[in-house]
């Protein structure tokens, strides 16, 4: 009988969905306990009451415990330490794996002393911990853990996200795959585009915004106020095929959040041969050359880097080619998922 892996995470997150399907492909029976359900082929879901406020997670522990004990999995794996990780810790079923996503270790524990204490309490109940960047691994190790901590990132499906000939790309098309939420600083990117148009008035510039989110109305108003209606296209949330189609038209990808671990969007852009400009964060320094890193929230600095790339097509293409090589070396999803599959199996009795 196939070993049973129970994930705790958002069923509407592409990261959770990919993880579940990758493990099914490796012979696991996969179930999912979630507060944000969305159908997923072959994965049994147990749905928690909705979570509308952060404090609601504290009141979902009983329901999560009932679901997990009824499912009786061989391994429990919680995604996002300060939400589903808390629920998994309260379930008291082992082996227990936890994966940190970014803000759950880099931001949330530092908001209040009791939150830092709770984060440590959660992590110390895990038998194995993963994070998708060196900065996350280091952050986890600050809590004096008994469990091993591994750097395992989401990786890229290189069969789907692959480069197209640079000559097929018209003008200077720029893309952002990040959600339209405050952390991802899409307003800074729009401001930078306005500056770039002033600096390169004759250049055919187009910005593609993917991801969707709660700031859509605000961002559309900003675009209109700056006279960028013809230069910005709001795509919203697309599936992998839709994202790959947009990436194939673009030369530059921008990812400038205030806080982040290793961004899948950034890795997918690199795999497609785009030049990537990113905020100067520890996780991004692992992947992006310093000349292409900018302070988060600095539209002027971002515009300057974009101007250099837009004005030197050969340089932009060479940056993209190096990105493809780097992903082939370190960013393949299959290798990352094979690694966690081996770690899971080492935990089985």
TrEMBL record:
<dbReference type="Pfam" id="PF13692">
    <property type="entry name" value="Glyco_trans_1_4"/>
</dbReference>
<feature type="domain" description="Glycosyltransferase subfamily 4-like N-terminal">
    <location>
        <begin position="4"/>
        <end position="132"/>
    </location>
</feature>
<protein>
    <submittedName>
        <fullName>Glycosyl transferase family 1</fullName>
    </submittedName>
</protein>
<dbReference type="InterPro" id="IPR028098">
    <property type="entry name" value="Glyco_trans_4-like_N"/>
</dbReference>
<keyword id="KW-0808">Transferase</keyword>
<dbReference type="GO" id="GO:0016757">
    <property type="term" value="F:glycosyltransferase activity"/>
</dbReference>
<dbReference type="InterPro" id="IPR050194">
    <property type="entry name" value="Glycosyltransferase_grp1"/>
</dbReference>
<dbReference type="Pfam" id="PF13477">
    <property type="entry name" value="Glyco_trans_4_2"/>
</dbReference>
């Amino acid at each position: 009988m196939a070993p049973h892996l129970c994930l705790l995470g958002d069923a509407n997150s592409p990261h959770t969905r990919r993880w579940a399907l990758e493990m099914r492909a490796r012979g696991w029976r996969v179930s999912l306990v979630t507060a944000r359900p969305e159908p997923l082929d072959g994965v049994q879901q147990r749905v928690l009451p909705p979570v509308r406020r952060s404090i609601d997670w504290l009141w979902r522990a009983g329901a999560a415990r009932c679901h997990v004990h009824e499912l009786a999995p061989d391994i429990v794996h919680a995604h996002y330490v300060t939400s589903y990780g808390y629920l998994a810790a309260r379930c008291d079923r082992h082996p227990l794996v936890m994966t940190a996503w970014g803000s759950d270790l880099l931001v949330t524990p530092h908001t209040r002393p009791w939150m830092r204490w709770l984060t440590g309490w959660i992590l110390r109940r895990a038998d194995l911990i993963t994070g998708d960047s060196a900065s996350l691994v280091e952050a986890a190790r600050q809590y004096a853990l008994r469990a091993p901590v591994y750097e395992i990132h989401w990786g890229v499906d290189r069969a789907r996200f692959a480069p197209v000939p640079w000559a097929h790309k018209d003008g200077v098309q720029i893309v952002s795959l990040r959600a339209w939420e405050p952390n991802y600083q899409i307003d800074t990117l729009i401001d930078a585009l306005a500056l770039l148009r002033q600096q390169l008035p004759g250049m055919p510039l187009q910005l593609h915004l993917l991801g969707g989110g709660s700031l859509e109305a605000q961002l559309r108003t900003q675009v209109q106020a700056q006279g960028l209606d013809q230069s910005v296209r709001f795509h919203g949330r697309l599936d992998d095929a839709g994202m790959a189609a947009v990436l194939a038209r673009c030369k530059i990808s921008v990812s400038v959040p205030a806080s982040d671990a290793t961004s899948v969007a950034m890795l997918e852009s690199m795999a497609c041969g785009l030049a990537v400009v990113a905020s100067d964060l520890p996780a991004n320094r692992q992947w992006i050359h310093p000349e292409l890193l900018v302070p988060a929230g600095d539209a002027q600095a971002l515009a300057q880097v974009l101007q250099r790339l837009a004005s030197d097509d050969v340089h932009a293409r060479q940056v993209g080619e190096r990105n493809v090589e780097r992903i082939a070396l370190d960013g393949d999803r299959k290798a990352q998922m094979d690694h966690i599959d081996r770690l899971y199996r080492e935990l089985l009795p």
